[in-house]
């Protein structure tokens, strides 16, 4: 009998596997030439694209252009007027904006000061400690209620298991 | 794909796409389209379905590209997405029907029948060769798990390690099952192997 070494057997096995592989892939499916283009055209806009550095090029360029334009505008408009009057106009605009914010929120600075005085009267060391105790005890109460419910559910499952096992034993006895 | 792109690892191409060079995703498509379409064809047995599903897979991969973990191989990831998509597609094709006399199979389950998917269209004629039919028939007759491994190895061109990672199976088990699957295929395709 021809003596075959383990390496011979392995080699034959490899050749066999290789021949099988060649047979299996002998009828490949040709890829549609337009497939790649179709995939690229169908790619949707995705969230991570916004984080890509290149995605910010246009907005940054637009911002730079805006700032350059604003600077040019300020420089050319400031040429015929004094710098102080321009600064004064900008300060007035800022004040108008701030006042408008406060007015639209319904509160004036005086009201905030009033609240501050009231809190100063109420908030002593004793009241703060008492408030803390109230909060902690409320959480403890809620936690104990939730734990109690979970314990009841667990006990119900265990009971159901014991009843089920008892039924099985009964049936085996039949 | 440019020569430079051919040499770049998948992970580098992914990084470039995430940095904003969307066109580099086309290089990844070019690299994997043939393997993916052939892999899907062997499971779905329809060329158009394989192309359509491959396109869906690439879109899904693109959408999730920022979640790709470069510690793992890109090939394993894309084929996992493809595998899940193929299984979903196959499940959709399954038709469950109840016989009129209410008889079910031995396990008490309604009988199921997978809708055949005749391969029509411009590539249909290529599938009509005797050898092609024999190959596909032999693959179809394999048990599902063996069929998956054969298709991943020979058409998806994944390595044993990649298959083991994808299937979450020990390497030894993958090799054993592949060996067994090849033995079954050799028996069925013996006439063509002796040519």
Question: Summed up, what is this model?
Answer:
The complex is a heterodimer of chains A (about 170) and B (about 200). Chain A is mainly alpha-helical.
SSE-based structural type of chain A: mainly alpha
Number of helices of chain B: 10
User: What integer is the average pLDDT of chain B?
Assistant: 83
Label the structural class of chain B.
Answer: mainly alpha
Compressed to H and E, one letter per element, the order of chain B equals: HHHHHEEHHHHH
> How many H/I helices of chain A?
6
Cα distance, first to last residue of chain B? 37 Å
* Radius of gyration of chain A over all CA atoms, rounded: 40 Å
Low-confidence stretches of chain A: none
Number of strands of chain A: 0
Q: From the alpha carbons, calculate the radius of gyration of chain B and give it in angstroms.
A: 19 Å
Mean pLDDT of chain A: 72
Tell me about this structure:
The complex is a heterodimer of chains A (174) and B (195). Chain A has helices at 6-24, 35-42, 57-78, 83-105, 109-122, 125-173. Chain A is mainly α. The longest helix of chain A is centred in the last third of the chain and has 49 residues, at 125-173. Chain B is mainly alpha-helical and 195 residues long. Chain B contains ten helices and two strands, in the order αααααββααααα. Classes of the chains: A mainly alpha (174), B mainly alpha (195).
Provide key terms for this protein.
heterodimer, A: 174 residues, mainly alpha, flat, B: 195 residues, two-stranded antiparallel ribbon, 65% helix
Task: Write the topology of this structure.
The complex is a heterodimer of chains A (174) and B (195).
Chain A: H1 6-24, H2 35-42, H3 57-78, H4 83-105, H5 109-122, H6 125-173
Chain B: H1 3-7, H2 10-18, H3 24-44, H4 47-63, H5 74-93, E1 94-97, E2 111-114, H6 130-141, H7 144-155, H8 160-167, H9 171-188, H10 190-193
Antiparallel strand pairs in B: 1-2
Helix pairs in contact in B: 2-3, 3-4, 3-5, 3-7, 4-5, 5-8, 7-9, 8-9
